[in-house]
Amino acid sequence: MNQQDGEDYITEQGVIADLQTQPHLMIKLQENALIVAESLRDNYFANTAKFVTHLRRAMRQAQLGEREQILNAKAINDLDWEKVQGEVVTFIDGGLGQVQMSSPVPILLRVGSYRVRTGERDLAEREQFGYYPVILGDLEGGSKERKDFPDIVRITAELLGGLSALKRTPDLRVLMFHGPLVYMMSGYAGHTPFTEKDIDLFLSHYAQEPELAQQLKEEFLNEAELEIYPKIAPDRCDEWVERRFFEPLSWMAFLYRQLIKEAKQKKPKTIITGVVERGQLREFSEFILLERVFQGLRKNKKTNYFNELYGRKDIKSPKVLLDRLGYTDALLLSMLLEPGQFSEPWEIQNKYAGLTKGKISLPDESYTTDADWSCLKSSHKIGFPKVQGCYVKVSETTEPFRVEVFADLGKDQIIEAARRAYLYARLLPGYAFPVGLDIVDKYAKIPNWLTEAYSKLIKYHLGVSLQTGQITDAQMRRIIVQSIYMTKRDWLFRPNV
């Protein structure tokens, strides 16, 4: 019998006993209890148990047809390995290496790919690894002074790695990325455009055939000239096109659309998905789960329910509830989903919420120019694609992970992606995350010996430059000496007495 069918499941004592057998939930609830307002701390766990009890009862009543559904959770454990026999799956992840000098400077990146044909007994035919290295110091564009510069390089490289997998694998059934399929893109607005040389560096690892890389470049530049740049920077459009600049956000949006285009050409269409572990998103709770709860409370004239439960006067909306109590999607769904279940899918709204007007500088200019990224929202033809998400719970001892897919690839993408992510995660019962992503994560990681070797190479060239007198400015020489020899507790940086 499913645990949800038992009567203890919908009693407060049963919920408390259930939570106490799940250490990861207890730890998270204890962490939240330390950061919420003092008035909420004493009874935080007990009140959470009461709230979850009421949610579970509402779900039970909805199953019996006694009320409207607040959470449509369905079984996802109906897929077995025999049904996916012979499928080709590619897992993608990017790794960053840091060279410790005067400050941690990300300098090396490589995107790893792990391709496997399920059920194949011949090891040489079953598995294949590949990686695409990029040295960040070789890039001319991008705003290197920004902390998120390595992120836009990594995301771009991962997209090209996925596109390469689609191009090179005619029978690719699943393409799975480690992390969100699409990130919160507004945070990356304003980066200096990449130059054509930068894009050539990216594409040298993407396409074995130079014609294929050239075709991708020209297709983007044609679209940029006719549709993208006139909307983003109408005053500088002609110059950007003439100098063959690749504005990072519009370049990434273009690559996302290329992924969808390639997937649609496969028969059946390739399932493209991103899987997020330990996510902090709370959008499902705010706009789906709790919105239905508040609607039910208003309908039944119990609008003061949460204030009475938590001893407050200000909890009048889902957003305020989440702000005050620190709940996230993963935390709430950990207490509502059973292993082998997934939540209903929803269209994730906040991926592109902040794409508005801003400033941007060119690689050889110190001043900024106006830019408008609102045309890259998913409602526009040249924008980023719409993304759907759902949560999958694999075991009692782990939080649900989030699965993301492109809405443009069809309604069946989310369920098929979730079923396979669950199946792959069952191979790691203690970790409950798709095994292929765990493998490619280790493969893409930049080993310490490589970053140390690169660090020594940099320090060697700086040392030679100092000794030969190529660096003459006294202050610059001191900075470089500190960069070469500094550790985190170096005497050069001790405070003056």
Description:
- By secondary structure, the protein is an alpha+beta fold.
- The protein has 3 domains: 3-72 and 281-336, no CATH class; 81-278 and 347-444, archaeoglobus fulgidus dsm 4304 fold (2-Layer Sandwich); 448-493, no CATH class.
- It is built from 18 helices and 12 strands.
- Strands 1, 2, 3, 4, 5, 6, 7, 8, 11 and 12 form a 10-stranded mixed sheet that branches. It has a two-stranded antiparallel sheet with strand order 9-10.
- Strand 11 (387-393) and strand 12 form a beta hairpin.
- The longest helix is centred in the middle third of the chain and has 23 residues, at 210-232.
- The chain is globular.
Weakly predicted, low-confidence segments:
101-106, 482-495
What percent of residues adopt helix (DSSP H or I)? 40-55%
Cα-atom radius of gyration: 26 Å
**Class computed from helices, strands and strand pairing:** alpha+beta
Second-tier CATH architecture of the largest domain: 2-Layer Sandwich
| Share in β-strands | 15-25%
- Largest sheet data: 10 strands, mixed
Number of helical elements: 18
Mean pLDDT across residues: 85
- What is the N-to-C succession of helices and strands? HHHHEEEHEHEHHHHEHHHHEEEEEEHHHH
CATH class of the largest domain: Alpha Beta
Query: How many distinct domains?
Result: 3
- According to CATH, what is the topology of the largest domain? archaeoglobus fulgidus dsm 4304 fold
Q: Give the termini separation.
A: 71 Å
